[in-house]
Amino acid sequence: MGNPSVVFATPYFGGAAPLQDVPPDLRAFYSADRSRLKHADAVAFHIPDFTYARFGDTPKYKGQLWVAWSMESNANYPLQADPAFLRHFDLRISYERSADIWLPYLPALEAWHDAQRSPRPPGHSDAPVVMFQSANDNRSGRFEFAAELMRHIRVDSYGKTLHNCDLAETDDGRATKMRVIGRYAFCLAFENSIAPDYVTEKLFQPLLAGTVPVYLGAPNAHEFAPPHSFIRAGDYGGPRGLAAYLHHLTAHPDEYAAYLAWRAQPLPEPLRALVLRSREQNVWRDLVERLAASGTKSQVEKLPRLPFGYRAALRSRLWKLSTRSPRRTTASF
């Protein structure tokens, strides 16, 4: 078998596929040129960008593997959890540990160690709680929860959501955000939806910044963090009860300090193993290696299959004609 080739069939959040993240020695294996679909060993679909109108007529050639790729929650994109849809795909790349290729949000081991070696930033904010939230997704009810919480405890909100505070320094992106978070006792870490394994940077950034996350999200988030390192927002009977607990911790420094004790201890072995597993997997390399191991090579056929069906293909073609888009979104059969 020659070098495996992977072509992205869809955009990536409406833009170009993130091929700049591909390691230099693998870049020859990846492309976003849809004219090369018929020669590809694998075709990758970023599911949050998938619509039947745009991609329902995508042909599948003999020997190809189709890849469903998403780091987004199934609650936000239910299509990616639909068995009838997923049966068209041979591999799944996801934050879910059940995926063929696991792609979690976990920080690298070095990031955890750097946080443990660094002294906790001195807190000097008048407000006990900080919040950075700008995205609109809200299937977890996080906006309503935060709004009610703010009635019972002061929360400095720097994002677009419930904005009430502006940065007093130049915004350098993530570095600025981490510095600001570290000045507060607590940080609201509210996921946009609640699903197992969907544990994002919302939890990890406060942990690494040196504060205590107040987390709303995955029921198994404890598997992705040190023990007693974050507070579950839903464990106190609602926003009023949570606010009372946060006030209690600010009045009892020893109890608050217990949430930061992990910084002076080795990472628990289960978490360390999970971090190492996530770092050992490079999604770009893993996909190429899987293709190489499969021993398959696409063979161009005059009449490739239409996995989504002829009706979906016809509707897709008609929709494209009706939009009169100058850009073709599918390769010629």
Characteristic key phrases:
Rossmann fold, disordered C terminus, 5-stranded parallel β-sheet, 2 domains, 333 residues, 6-stranded parallel β-sheet, alpha/beta, 11 helices, single chain
Helix content: 25-40%
Report strand %: 5-15%
Give Rg in angstroms.
23 Å
At CATH level 3, the topology of the largest domain is Rossmann fold
Biggest β-sheet description: 6 strands, parallel
Count of beta strands = 11
Poorly predicted runs: 328-333
CATH C-level category of the largest domain: Alpha Beta
- Shape, per Cα inertia axes: elongated
Please, what is the CATH homologous superfamily of the largest domain? Glycosyl transferase family 10, C-terminal domain
Please give the order of strands in the largest beta sheet: 2-1-3-4-5-6
**Which sequence of SSEs, written as H and E, runs from N to C?**
EEEHEHEEHEHEHEHEEHHHHH
The secondary-structure class comes to alpha/beta
Q: What's the overall average pLDDT, rounded?
A: 91
* Count of distinct structural domains: 2
Q: Tell me the CATH architecture of the largest domain.
A: 3-Layer(aba) Sandwich
- Terminal-residue CA separation: 24 Å
**Count of separate DSSP helical elements:** 11
Structural commentary:
The chain has 333 residues and is of the alpha/beta class. The protein has two domains: 6-103 and 281-323, no CATH class; 109-278, Rossmann fold (3-Layer(aba) Sandwich), CATH 3.40.50.11660. The protein is built from eleven helices and eleven strands. It has helices spanning 52-55, 83-86, 109-117, 142-149, 174-181, 201-209, 239-251, 253-257, 269-280, 283-294, 310-323; strands at 6-8, 30-31, 42-46, 65-70, 91-94, 101-102, 129-131, 155-157, 186-190, 212-216, 231-232. The strands form two sheets. The chain has a six-stranded parallel beta sheet, with helices on one face. A five-stranded parallel beta sheet has the order 8-7-9-10-11, with helices on both faces. The chain is elongated. The two termini are 24 Å apart.
